[in-house]
């Protein structure tokens, strides 16, 4: 298996072993894999879960998502823990015992404030648990002696539809496909009008057809399990509970396009799912559903490797994902050519979302009419929503496309709702005048994230959190996104701290539009959405923070002189600029 | 019925321009003496499209001219106020991202970033300076690397790989923390096989890669962009020569 030789996996092992990746290790790995030192160094620098200085014995990553982040319960838990353990956020304590950092959404949004400790999710955090964690760390208790239920990730499924209602026995999809034959199967997928569930909504049938028609030395099937959009956790559940249907969908795709090798690209935050997925793969090989001569069919050979990411939202973009599969930084490629013709190792490749493959398996079993009976004309079938934020029952809800936002809000027990963020920070921020709109590709599209904010929430703080997320996750390839996302974060901050003037709102609008229009990939095209939506639907959230001036400086002049006062040891009235009202 | 073969023509602003199959919009434009502002493109080197200055509107859609294939019948807008304004803002972003000390930079007058700012009528940097901390590498006896002036165009990376047959540079890091790195165990330029005559050492559009011991060979007033406009086509040859050391 090439899995063990994958650069990301080797670096993960080193990170586990030494708690960082030294320059020496970088050179050794480069030699071992015959790669340029610069490539290994660039990969270490790119992925958030690789460190160039040692992390602590307990390495803690608090999610900073609005739903599973350290402020989700109202208290600033990261500050609390760092104070109790006397360590600065973003640093390793001098004795090497622990380090505390922030990370982007870890997909635990139905479990409240959560963190990763040495890579393992720990959920339902509150002040009391922070106290207990403090004691356990100071007592040097190994993680396997911590309370087991802290690590038990339950799935909350509140509404089942087409995909979640029935369970398909392993192999049924493949047998149905072989009965239909290759072309008939593709026709069925095409007629189902299935569209990509990751959010972009490209026709799955067309994608498979284009890849099948593309010439190459080999074809590949890739499952995008890099569920990084904040507020999305439906793939976490699908990987845990419906892995067979997923692997079956990938195998069906392989048969249709003529692939022998497939990959699951699993986000690093979900590494804890790896043993389960590997066991499922093994089981399917034993059943003859993977490997050579699948179901006794000579020439039907296909197997799947799992590659685990290392903390990079951008790798959810399909061409960045392919770069990462190839052991490189996740920088999106220029398109065209598209992955269907020029993907993994330059060969024709289908990249589909977890939910898309599972839907494909069901369609092959039940037929396209069964699928098109649900949903709207342009958005057939169902969509799994990951609902989180201010509601009584956060969890997974499967709805037929076309459901209104109002209906969703009622069913998950949300009231006093100020705003809904559909599709995550990259999606759409809606106020209550838009709650009659429908979840559908032709109306409000979503990859699954559905975050609810009630009237007690500070919308501007949420938008700032999203802006910080994009600045952190920008790959840095193109000018507008690399610089623009940082400028947007700073521009919002200026307003939040009360230094903003009306001109700063216009400036946010201007830079947002530039980032949206001129960026290289989907990340940049959507990074300014929360700001643009916020300016349009929640202008008062910005306005109430403004000073009365048309323009103010980014800094406060008197505060900027603090360092000079310290150096000269003068802090009397004469050392201060005249303040208003003096 | 016979149909006439599709003429291989695109329209850029008010001009019909021929192209050969396989050419990009940028290739076709340069061949026809039409200037599309760019910083990360260099003829003969695989385009990447990272600076985004060459963004044009192709049938209403923004695309980078350097990476987009020309296709018959494309209606392209290039030299229009909206695009030039965006290009100016992108240039401002490149200025504030690093630390561009024009008056004291050896590259002044020979610098494409500076010339672009003049070309686009950029009168100030507008955005707050970011003041990143990026390491200077003065280890190499004849070539100096000042990363604070780097605009991450990756021309040196590509020139080294594609033209020099070496692999001296790469870009590492994410987002605003991206920076140019050297492909040696020490990370230092001195341990690389870079030579002053390499295209990678001469292609830098800004003052990030400088040939040592050749400061101000051409006096201010007689430098490339004192005598040429950046919008002139085919400046690359002069550009390369301008940065060339005497012994190469």
UniProtKB/TrEMBL annotation, chain A:
Residues in NADH-ubiquinone oxidoreductase 51kDa subunit iron-sulphur binding domain copies: 460-505
* SUPFAM superfamilies for this protein: Nqo1 FMN-binding domain-like (SSF142019), Nqo1 middle domain-like (SSF142984), Nqo1C-terminal domain-like (SSF140490), Thioredoxin-like (SSF52833)
Q: Which GO terms describe its molecular function?
A: 4 iron, 4 sulfur cluster binding; FMN binding; metal ion binding; NADH dehydrogenase (ubiquinone) activity
SMART domains referenced in this protein's UniProt entry, alphabetically = NADH_4Fe-4S
User: InterPro entries in the record, alphabetically?
Assistant: NADH-UbQ_OxRdtase_51kDa_CS, Nuo51_FMN-bd, Nuo51_FMN-bd_sf, NuoE_N, Nuop51_4Fe4S-bd, Nuop51_4Fe4S-bd_sf, Thioredoxin-like_sf
Cofactor(s) needed by this chain:
[4Fe-4S] cluster; FMN
Q: Matching Pfam families, A to Z?
A: 2Fe-2S_thioredx (PF01257), Complex1_51K (PF01512), NADH_4Fe-4S (PF10589)
Q: Which UniProt keywords apply?
A: 4Fe-4S, Iron, Iron-sulfur, Metal-binding
Instruction: Report the family membership.
Output: Belongs to the complex I 51 kDa subunit family.
Q: What is this protein called?
A: [NiFe] hydrogenase diaphorase moiety large subunit
TrEMBL record, chain B:
Keywords on record: 4Fe-4S, Iron, Iron-sulfur, Metal-binding
Tell me yes or no: is Iron-sulfur among this UniProt entry's keywords: yes
The 2Fe-2S ferredoxin-type domain extends over 8-82
Q: Which domain of life is it from?
A: Bacteria
Q: Name the Pfam families for this protein.
A: Fer2_4 (PF13510), Fer4_15 (PF13459), NADH-G_4Fe-4S_3 (PF10588)
Return the CDD domains for the record: fer2
Signal peptide span: none
Domain 4Fe-4S His(Cys)3-ligated-type positions: 82-121
Q: Under the GO molecular function aspect, what terms does this record hold?
A: 4 iron, 4 sulfur cluster binding; metal ion binding; oxidoreductase activity
Q: Which family does it belong to?
A: Belongs to the complex I 75 kDa subunit family.
User: What is the protein name stated in its UniProt record?
Assistant: [NiFe] hydrogenase diaphorase moiety small subunit
Give the source species.
Nitrosomonas communis
């Amino acid at each position: 298996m090439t899995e063990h030789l994958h650069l990301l996996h080797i670096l993960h092992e080193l990170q586990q072993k030494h708690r960082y990746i030294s320059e020496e290790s970088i050179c050794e790995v480069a030699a071992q894999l015959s790669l340029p030192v610069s490539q290994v160094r660039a990969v270490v620098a790119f992925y958030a879960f690789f460190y160039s200085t040692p992390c602590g014995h307990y390495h803690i990553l608090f999610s900073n998502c609005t739903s599973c982040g350290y402020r989700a319960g109202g208290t600033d838990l990261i500050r609390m823990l760092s104070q109790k353990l006397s360590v600065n956020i973003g640093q390793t304590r001098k004795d090497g015992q622990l380090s505390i950092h922030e990370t982007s959404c870890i997909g635990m949004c139905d479990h409240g404030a959560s963190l990763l400790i040495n890579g393992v999710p720990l959920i339902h955090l509150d002040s009391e648990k922070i106290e207990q964690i403090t004691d356990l760390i100071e007592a040097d208790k190994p993680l396997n002696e911590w309370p087991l239920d802290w690590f038990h990730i339950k799935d909350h499924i509140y509404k089942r539809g087409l995909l979640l209602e029935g369970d398909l026995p392993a192999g049924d999809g493949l047998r149905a496909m072989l009965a239909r034959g290759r072309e008939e199967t593709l026709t069925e997928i095409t007629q189902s009008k299935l569209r990509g569930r990751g959010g972009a909504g490209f026709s799955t049938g067309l994608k498979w057809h284009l890849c099948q028609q593309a010439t190459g030395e080999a074809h590949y099937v890739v499952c995008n399990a890099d569920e990084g959009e904040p507020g999305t956790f439906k793939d976490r559940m699908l990987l845990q509970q419906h892995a067979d249907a997923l692997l079956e969908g990938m195998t069906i795709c392989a048969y249709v396009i003529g692939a022998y090798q497939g990959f699951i690209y699993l986000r690093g935050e979900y590494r804890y799912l790896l043993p389960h997925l590997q066991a499922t793969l093994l089981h399917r090989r034993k059943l003859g559903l993977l490997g050579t001569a699948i179901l006794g069919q000579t020439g039907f050979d296909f197997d799947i490797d799992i590659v685990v990411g290392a903390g990079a939202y951008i790798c959810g973009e399909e061409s960045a994902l392919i770069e990462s599969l190839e052991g490189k930084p996740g920088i999106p490629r220029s398109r065209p050519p598209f992955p269907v013709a020029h993907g993994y190792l330059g060969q024709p490749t289908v990249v589909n979302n977890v939910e898309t493959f599972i839907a494909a398996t069901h369609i092959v079993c039940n037929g396209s009419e069964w699928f098109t009976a649900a949903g709207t004309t342009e958005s057939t079938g169902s969509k799994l929503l990951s609902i989180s934020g201010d509601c009584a029952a956060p969890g997974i809800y499967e709805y037929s496309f076309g459901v209104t936002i109002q209906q969703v809000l009622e069913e998950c027990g949300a009231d006093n709702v100020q705003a809904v963020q559909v599709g995550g920070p990259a999606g759409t921020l809606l106020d209550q005048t838009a709650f009659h709109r429908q979840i559908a590709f032709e109306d409000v599209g979503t990859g699954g994230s559905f975050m609810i904010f009630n009237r007690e929430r500070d919308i501007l703080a949420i938008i700032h959190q999203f802006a910080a997320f994009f600045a952190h996750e920008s790959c840095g390839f193109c000018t507008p996104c690399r610089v623009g996302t940082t400028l947007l974060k700073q521009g919002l901050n200026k307003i939040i701290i009360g230094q903003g003037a009306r001109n700063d709102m216009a400036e946010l609008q201007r830079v947002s539009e530039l980032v949206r229009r001129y960026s290289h990939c989907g990340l940049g095209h959507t990074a300014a959405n929360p700001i643009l939506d916020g300016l349009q639907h929640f202008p008062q959230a910005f306005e109430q923070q403004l000073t009365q001036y048309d323009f103010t400086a980014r800094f406060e002049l008197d505060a900027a002189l603090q360092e000079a006062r310290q150096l000269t040891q003068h802090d009397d009235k004469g050392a201060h600029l005249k303040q208003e009202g003096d | 019925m016979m149909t006439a073969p599709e003429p291989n023509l695109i329209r850029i602003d008010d001009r019909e321009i021929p192209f050969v199959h396989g050419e990009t919009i940028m290739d076709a434009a340069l061949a026809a003496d039409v200037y599309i502002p760019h910083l990360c493109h260099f003829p003969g080197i695989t385009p990447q499209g990272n600076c985004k200055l060459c963004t044009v509107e192709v049938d209403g859609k923004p695309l980078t001219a350097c990476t987009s294939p020309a296709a018959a019948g494309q209606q392209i807008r290039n030299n229009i106020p909206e695009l030039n304004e965006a290009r100016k803002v992108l240039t401002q972003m490149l200025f504030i991202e690093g630390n561009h000390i024009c008056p004291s930079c050896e590259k002044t007058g020979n610098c494409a970033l500076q010339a672009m700012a003049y070309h686009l009528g950029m009168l100030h940097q507008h955005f707050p300076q970011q003041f990143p901390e990026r390491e200077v590498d003065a280890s190499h006896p004849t070539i100096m690397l000042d990363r604070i002036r780097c605009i991450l165009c990756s021309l040196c990376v590509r020139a080294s790989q594609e033209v020099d047959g070496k692999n001296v540079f790469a870009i590492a890091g994410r987002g605003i923390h991206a920076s140019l790195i050297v492909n040696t165990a020490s990370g230092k330029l001195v341990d690389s096989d870079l030579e002053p005559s390499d295209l990678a050492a001469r292609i830098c559009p800004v003052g990030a890669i400088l040939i040592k011991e050749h400061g101000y060979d051409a006096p201010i007033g007689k430098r490339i962009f004192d005598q040429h406009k950046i919008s002139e086509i085919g400046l690359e040859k002069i550009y390369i020569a301008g940065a060339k050391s005497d012994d190469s």
